[in-house]
G protein coupled receptor
Amino acid sequence: MGDRYFPNEMPDYIPETTTTAVEETVTERNNKDSLTKLLSLPYNILSQRLKASALDLKDTVVRETWGMSGKRVKDYSLYTGALGTAYLLFKAYQVTKNHNDLKLCSDIIKACDSELLLLDILMRRLLKLRVTFICGRAGVCALGAVAAKHAGDGRLLDHYLAQFKEIRLPSDLPYELLYGRAGFLWACSFLNKHIGKETISASRKRAVVDEIIKAGRLTRNGKCPLLYEWHGKRYWGAAHGLAGIMLVLMDLELTPDEVEDVKGTLHYMIKNHFPSGNYPSSEGNKSDCLVHWCHGAPGIALTLAKAAEVFGDKEFLQAAMEAGEVVWNRGLLKRVGICHGISGNTYVFLSLYRLTGNVEYLYRAKAFACFLHDRAQKLVSEGKMHGGDRPYSLFEGFGGMAYLFLDILEPLEARFPAYEL
């Protein structure tokens, strides 16, 4: 297992120094390693360093993914493609209010939209399967609508909303987040949060919820109220399994019996986690090695934190904190990304900080971010850390690291991209 992550040798907690203390102890700090120096910086000073690094990384991501594309989009997804670059640019615009970032964001979304229209003609049957926020047309339309709203372009806003409302879900669509019904519902919730409460009607969402609940009850094993299959496995994690589906359902209006099914499913997962505190990647899997957002404790911790907030259940809070300990001990992965890397795992501590107000969780988020800031690019260049198969993408590479650095500037507002609303 140890070959998947770096040993976490950082102190469990370092109280912040004041600006005056930083100035007075500069000689002492010069005797420390660079990571320890970062950890002892006041949050306001550190955050500005992270911001500068994020904006430099953002420019690199744009240059490597968009500047070299010739404006032709080969991968339009948020996960590894051009839409992920647009999402990063939109985050940068929210932080800096630089309208050039918003304009470029909109230009990239338009290119994605044009590519999808072409694909719709050439591969109509295949395209119907691409309906989620992270990996499909729903993401292009939803982000396009929100960017258009911020740009004050009502015509373009109406265009994207009309396209979104034309999306139809195939009968054989799976139920998970990346490619399935939960991923479409997340896009609906994203639009309703950023455009208006009834942008996507309750009846449209309700029909999809009914399908998800019905399928989960049909697949259940008698002990877990809801279960789902994807490619022959009953996954538990955020990307393809229970954690992602339950999180999406908690943002929607549910009947009392559906609420009990969601809570019962989460209680079942808690009861059947590994002795280490980590979680199986799928039902019956005995391998305790994955500590990622997509599989294992990180993604499930985010869902449990959401459950603690929604239901006020102390068991969910306790389980989320215990999963957080797994992430602290085994979450310095030898990868940089959001999906299965340090950047994504950092959001566990930001979520727990937001939920509990405990500054030790903010420190842990800062510690993981400092590790990335101090060492990631060097470790990748030395071959000791994986930069991702698509090294500048949002979910696999440095795009996600840049997004995290921008998000952590306002820790109470930070949300795992395309997962936490």
Q: What stands out?
A: The chain is about 60% helix and 0% strand.
